[in-house]
Amino acid sequence: MPRNLKEEVVFTAIMAGLMVLVMTGYNVAMAQGLSAGLVLAILKAYPLGLGVAIVLDLLVVGPIAKGLAFKYIINDYMKKNVVLIGITISVLMVLGMVTLMSFFGIAVEGKLAGGHILATYGHTWIFNLIVALPLQLLIVGPIARGVLGKMQKVAAVKNEETETIEEEV
């Protein structure tokens, strides 16, 4: 878990950056098929999707997911195991982000008009969840947590060196 703003920013950038890239590719491929313009369409859609995802992650879904997790789900036993806390928050984050980003995706594609809005949204939501949950739990989450862990180790070494220098003085 990130311990300060710098770690939170790096962790969110990696997590959102990779998740949005893969999910944008998946959704564009689902919408237009594997065509010659697929890569260009993904690159075109990526910046807006990333911006929206970061805002939603930091301001809406993240605080709600963490609040729900620590208030209703994570018990004393789970608090002893950081992995269980991470998985719980990751699952809640995926549920929240899929819920909001699926709506964003159909809005950007202009599919909010018409008589089948709920069917379109439900289809989009379930297909996104099927990809996003394993992507988060098996690939992107471990990568982001690995980078965060290395950052935290470097910070711990620097703190030890600073404390050693202060003790010598």
Sketch the topology as an H/E string, one letter per element. HHHHH
Q: Describe the sheet with the most strands.
A: none
The domain tally reads 1
Number of beta-strand segments: 0
Distance between the termini: 34 Å
Share of residues in helices: over 70%
Secondary structure tally, helices: 5
Radius of gyration: 19 Å
Shape: elongated
Query: What structural class do the secondary elements suggest?
Result: mainly alpha
Q: Proportion of β residues?
A: under 5%
Instruction: Report low-confidence residues grouped into runs of 5 or more.
Output: none
Overall pLDDT confidence: 92
Could you characterize the architecture of this molecule?
This is Integral membrane protein. InterPro entries: DUF2798. With 169 residues, this protein is mainly alpha-helical. The protein has one domain (5-144). The protein has helices at residues 5-32, 38-73, 76-79, 82-108, 117-168. The model has no long low-confidence stretch (mean pLDDT 92).
Key features of this structure:
169 residues; mainly alpha; 5 helices
Element layout with pairings:
Blueprint: H1 5-32, H2 38-73, H3 76-79, H4 82-108, H5 117-168
Helix pairs in contact: 1-2, 1-5, 2-4, 4-5
Brief overview:
The protein has helices at 5-32, 38-73, 76-79, 82-108, 117-168. The protein has 169 residues and is an all-alpha fold. It has one domain (5-144).
